[in-house]
Specification:
mainly alpha; 2 strands
Length: 327
């Protein structure tokens, strides 16, 4: 029971620390190390394998080494450190949870975009949005930048906050780190293009599987967070109609829920590496995005974040009372 109490306390403190501070650039972050390892393994894989089948095998091995290795390292380290001293174990577990949560950092990025656009600093806004999305931002206007920022906010509300909380509450720190490693793999090699279709196949599929429940839970929490607005009944209809309007089976769920609550239009054309890509429009009857809409989106995100935290801590406490072991 004592270890379970430490686990819940660590998750609570980690959430509060993430909310208050985000990810300070001076603080060492294991995701950077994971990213460097993925890049190294990708270069090695491309030297050793040339065929599609070979690259698929390499992609599977990379997932096992990076995600499986990260989770195993956290599990063994925590077991050893807790035996050494409970306080030391608590601090390591706290840091493990803090490292996988990205809600505070996401909020800070959106605030920077809102401030830049609100002050008419278009070039600065473009550079800030470029940190959030993979599309070309050099020629985007205020509305397009606002739309891109809102899409990133609500897509990442699931994989940057709700999903890590979900795996932490249900399965513990090793599972949360496994999820974060898979998410990082997907963001680096999980592209569905010619260069990565084979190498990133396993990472993309596992990421889709792991995000299946969190994405849908996030959409529900967004609707609850927006309850009481005049758009509440229509928001559900937007979610039902547009929840699959994305190349990912999960991403459109939180985006559609947020678009319905905020009465904003998301999706549509975007430029990637100089090529225009037409994406399905989410909530076609909604208003065009604007910097003012980012402020509303941030308030909705904060409420969603708090609801997710309360729900997951309650779940963790329930599992502790049932005596369920975690990793």
């Amino acid at each position: 029971m004592e270890r379970s109490l430490f686990t819940i306390a660590a998750l609570v403190v980690a959430y509060l620390a993430d909310y208050l501070f985000g990810d300070p650039p001076w603080l060492p972050h294991p995701v950077r190390l994971i990213g460097s390892l993925i890049s190294l393994l990708e270069r090695s894989a491309r030297k050793l394998f040339k065929s599609s089948a070979g690259l698929k095998l390499a992609g599977l091995l990379i997932v096992l080494m990076v995600a499986g290795g990260s989770a195993l390292a956290v599990y063994l380290s925590l077991a050893a450190v807790y035996r050494l001293h409970p306080a030391a174990g608590f601090m390591l577990e706290l840091y493990s949870y803090y490292a996988v949560l990205a809600g505070g950092d996401l909020r800070n990025h959106l605030l920077a975009v809102k401030t830049a656009l609100g002050e008419g600093k278009l070039e600065e806004g473009r550079s800030k949005v470029a940190l959030l999305v993979s599309r070309d931002t050099e020629v985007l206007d205020r509305g397009e930048l606002s739309r891109a920022a809102l899409e990133s906010l609500f897509e990442n509300s699931s994989d940057g906050l709700v999903a890590p909380l979900f795996f932490a509450a249900l399965f513990g720190p090793a599972a949360a780190v496994f999820y974060k490693a898979v998410s990082t793999l997907d963001s680096m090699i999980g592209y569905k293009n010619k260069a990565y279709a084979a190498l990133g196949f396993t990472a993309a599929k596992i990421d889709d599987l792991l995000n299946y429940l969190p994405a849908r839970l996030t959409a529900l929490l967004i609707l609850i967070a927006g309850w009481g607005r005049k758009s509440s009944p229509a928001a559900w209809q937007v979610l039902v109609a547009d929840r699959y309007k994305h190349e990912s089976p999960n991403s459109a769920w939180p985006e559609a829920a947020a678009a319905g609550v905020l009465k904003v239009r998301l999706g549509g054309s975007a430029v990637y590496q100089g090529q225009i890509r037409e994406r399905p429009v989410i909530n076609a009857a909604g208003r065009e995005a604007s910097p003012e809409m980012i402020a509303l989106g941030l308030r909705l995100f904060q409420k969603t974040s708090l609801l997710a935290f309360i729900l997951m801590i309650g779940l963790a406490c329930g599992l502790m009372l049932l005596g369920v072991k975690k990793f």
